[in-house]
Amino acid sequence: MANVKIKVISRNPDEYLRATKRDIHKIPRNYDPSLHPLEAPREYVRALNAVKLERVFAKPFIGSLDGHRDGVSCMAKHPKRLAVLASGAFDGEIRLWDLAARKCTRNYVAHEGCVRAICYLPSGDKFTSVGDDKTIKTWKSQVVTEEDEEPVNTLLSSCVVTGVTHHRQRPIFATCGEHCQLWESTRNEPIKVFKWGVDSLHYVAFNQVENNILAACASDRSIILYDSRESGPLRKVVMELRSNALAWNPMEAFIFTVANEDYNLYSFDMRRLKEPVHVHMDHTSAVIDVDYAPTGREFVAGSYDKTVRIFQSERGHSRDVYHTKRMQRLTCVKWSLDNKYILTGSDEMNIRMWKAKASEKLGVLKPRERTALNYSEALKEKFASHPQVKRIARHRHVPKHVLNAQKEIRTIREKNKRKEANRHAHSKPGTIPRVSEREKHIVKEDV
Amino acid sequence: MKVKEKQPKRYFVTSDDTSAQKTKHKKKFNKQNVTKNKFTSRKEKNTQKTKNNEDVEVYDVKITPKMYHAQRSQDKKPIRQKPNFKRKKPQNFPGKAPLNPKKLEEYSRGERFQGRGVKNPLHNLKLKKKDRKIHYAEKQAARAEILLTEDQGGIEIEDEDYKTLAITQKVIADNVDIAAAAKIFELNLEFGPYRAKYSRNGRHLLLGSRKGHLAGFDWVTKKLHFEINVMESIHDISWLHVETMVAAAQKEWLYIYDNKGIELHCVKRIDKVLRMEFLPYHFLLACVSEYGFLTWLDISIGEIAGHYNNRLGRTLSMTHNPYNATLCLGDSKGVVSLWAPTVKEPLAKILCHKAPVTAISVNKNGMYMATSGVDRSMKIWDIRKLDGPLQHYMLRSAPVDLEFSQKNMLAVGLGDIVEIYDNCCTRTAEKPYMRHKMAKTVNNFKFCPYEDVLGIGTNRGFTSIIIPGSGEPNFDAYESNPFQTRSQRKEAEVKALLEKIPAELITLNPFEVTEVDVPSMRETLEAKKKLLHVKPKRVDLRPRNKNKGKNRITRQKIIKETARKEQVQQVKEAQGILKGSEQQKKPNQPSFGVLNRFVSNPKSNK
User: Fold this and answer.
1) From which residue to which does the signal peptide run (chain B) (predicted)?
2) What is the ipTM for the molecules in this complex?
């Protein structure tokens, strides 16, 4: 008999079983592809499950802050503290909120009539409010003594004040009303007044990156850009309908987005106002307010159609829509500075807190949870354009009035498109110019 | 002619020559000397001639194109050299261990993205990034092989004349450890021909006999789960997704039992089943009946996913392709056809033998298919190509059964002998790797997954033999775990149910679901028609008759047709001229200006 060596698989169970019951199970792995057959269909099913689970867990509403005795007119984020929010109401009351505890920390009547706008100073220890009573009041954020309850500074404007915004670094702020006025906190008179035509302005916002630039929305349907260092306004663009609010992109200094009355939002490049960079559609009524996420990749818009929509800044249609039965017309929206929450103020006196990502789990994630989520994210991305996956990911339930309005808008749009196409088909080529969607809504640009 | 000075001209150097400039010149000068050494050899020759005469030297050099190129390439060299800013790697760590390209190919996920064909640079970049990640994953998977704990089995013989064929089970039992030797055993049972099947993790064994004996047990510990006699003939048996449920195809209907032998279901919708296969990822129990009906039963919801007649008649050779979960059926005409539940026609057909097919087997990664016919031949096919056999063997008798092991060994059952061939797909094996002779006829056999064991169901019981090197030594516990506990099994069952692949996804190419769906021209035209305002061009999608005018009769027809058309055209033209003359005769309508539309039209009066 020749010398034979025979080796056979013989596993020692001790090496494959856990030693005690408290121990974790031993999971030997082998990445050989022949042991993992049908990889593609299995991944597809996993992606389908992941996208279904995302929809199942999409519960964005966190809670509401009630206390105002009239509709919420404006809100302001604290620049340094995530849990602090100031809100003003149509009855002149200002409330400060502790968002973590969902409680009102302080409330007082600040103005006669409506509070038009609030803005925090960059240091965060004071905030300014403007109201219908033509006063600009500066308040302390923290109340230590009784004196602190009174305004630190009260300025009287000659005309109505409807908006306020603070410079990122210098101690100046801008208000709007009949004109755009630039104030310094130490002086009683505005240091600069910008005028252009006989328009009245209703919204003003400082650029937080290119921080001497500010933009305002005027009631004569125009958007005006100013430079705080210069004496006159820079340029303006007139649109078909009035813009209600404006937000600067915090990451791309030259981009701003306006919320328009014609149900759309427009992102402009401030160097080229001739046509917007993007048109964001989906709302079915006038858009009232807009605010950017701190990443600059997304923004939130609140509309008169009682819904909040989240847009990606480079996409034409919304990523998500939030609504509740009780929420009425939106008056103001804010995206929190940790990119996690959205705050909305509405007509029916409530401030609501939402998650920015509807299906995100709040709280600390365990490492295995995190990897599972990352894996399902990757799968969703891989199969995103698969019709079944896409259908589930895109599906949103909307209130009936929104659904009906959407249908109506769609038919109107189709009708216009068909008419346009027919006009082109039956007229001499070149006689009727083709106007792109972006150009349509711009009347003119003035320099 | 070329004139050169020995010293470079220094016309930009002023009298107060700084040291920096000096060094600069020196360098330049050196460089010239170094780089233009092509000239130096001739230069020296020439200089010797003319040195005495003048300070300025004249070189008599004729530049050939070859020289010119050589010099250019030399000129370029110092420019191309980039300064090496990187620090030299320390010698004690030479970097990652090199990967075996063959290993890398095993883990490969297809061709790499070359960057061609994508116009948008942004998308191109994204795809490149993705490709880099995929390649990294491939490499990591290949590297992870070092973590595998078990080695593959095998036989080593020092004497070269001695063949592995001569090694009997007794020799193996003497040479391996006691635990492994216990895997060689024999069960003498008296209820007629037995069929045996292992569970997916290779831990449990199911036996079913023609005379109704049904038994399930943990064959490693030899612990019996249940043993019953169903008092009916059993044609085939199968484990379901867990080892607590088994299916038995009995005389009339399909029955499902649990691991205590309690009847859970009697599926009367499926009758007279001859062969069964369980598709674990789809939760489908595929059955073929005596009358040629193929049925896929979704055992998770109890619904039938596909049921139709394959029109092949009675077939006893059935297997499934683990690569794409299609069924392979061999019929009495020697054709092997592939079937999916949603398509009522075979997905593919191969004429394998000119005699009835007796057995089929497909290897684990769906590359090779082995078929055998009554004509005693055995062929190996590349199942993805469906093209001519790779190997063609003639055997002593027609094989009863064929079976591929996890490491691509092929077991062939010939009467009362089981032969095992190693590496018989890519090259022709001259001799079997092993041979096992029994005094009983073989009914069927299965390789035990993750073990070097072949279980043979015979007419008088069950035999288990060891085939060294046939099984996969390292299992993946997330896929199938021989050491699974009860809680792990429960969890894995839930996970597997969540990831159940729908029956519609069974196709020849399992990666079809990840490929780009390119709409056909007909579909794009249909989509355009749906748009309200676009009028698409009318395109006749019927295939053209390419033989038009090729034969005599049609050519004559065409000539006649054209002649007729011409005549009709002439008649029409003539009529047009006549009409035109008539129209001209008509007096013009009197004009009433704007109110013209109220004047009655003579045409409408007709």
Assistant:
1) none
2) 0.84
